[in-house]
Amino acid sequence: MTAQLETLPYRHVLTLPTEPAAVRVARETAERALVEWGIGLRHPAVDPALLVLSELVTNSVRHAALLSPQLTVIYAASRDCLAFAVHDRHPYQPPLYASGTAVLAGGLGTVMELTLGLGGTAVVRGDADGRGKSIWITLPL
Q1: How many CB atoms lie within 10 A of CB 90?
Q2: How far apart, in Å, are the Cα atoms of 121 and each of 12, 63, 94, 136, 141?
Q3: Between 1 and 5, residue with greater pLDDT
Q4: How far apart are CA 130 and CA 92, in angstroms?
Q5: Which of 60, 67, 103, 109 is most buried per CB count within 10 Å?
Q6: DSSP H helical segments within 65-138, as ranges?
Q7: Long-range pairs, 116-120, Cβ under 8 A, ≥24
Q8: pLDDT, tens digit, 9 for 90 and up, residues 110-135
Q9: Quick check: 75 and 11 in contact, CB under 8 A?
């Protein structure tokens, strides 16, 4: 999984209202993109990746909707790497890694357990103006 995100040959960007239906649309769009890119839906990383994506979109809907009427999902892939990000315009940047022996609770705990269990990475990237962020997940295929 050494590919730089900028060099991944497959990309798709989707902007949605920050509403509950966004979770379903983001997931269905991911499934269509993966099939189009030749990544089978039975690949062992796909179900966990779709769950992680659903959790991140759900978090934006639950926690960012008041300040961010839209969210953006960026999908990218190569032959050996799958990456996606969920972006909203809420300034809060949640911690992805617990300190010490503490374990993250809730949806982000699930996100991190699945991501790390698959040998992937997760990072929060703040917008240049400090008023939004993206959570990027990268998984090996």
Answers
A1: 19
A2: 20, 23, 15, 8, 13
A3: 5
A4: 9
A5: 60
A6: 106-117
A7: 117/48, 118/45, 118/48, 118/49, 119/1, 120/1
A8: 899 999 999 999 999 999 999 999 99
A9: yes
**Eight-class DSSP state of 132:** -
At 107 the pLDDT is 80
Residues 6+ apart with CB under 8 A from 44: none
C-alpha span between 45 and 54 (Å, rounded)? 14
Residue-wise pLDDT tens digits, 29-67: 999 999 999 999 999 999 999 999 999 999 999 999 999
- Classify domain 8-140 at the CATH class level: alpha beta
Q: Which two tokens stand for residue 10?
A: 């497959």
Residue ranges per structural domain of the chain: 8-140
Give the list of residues 6+ apart from residue 15 with CB closer than 8 angstroms, or none. 70, 71, 72, 73
Tokens read off for 131: 């008023």
Cα-Cα-Cα-Cα torsion 140, 117, 53, 77, nearest 10 degrees, comes to 0
59 within 8 A of 53, measured Cβ to Cβ: no
Q: What is the pTM of this model?
A: 0.91
Q: How confident is the model at residue 2 (pLDDT cuts 50, 70, 90)?
A: very low
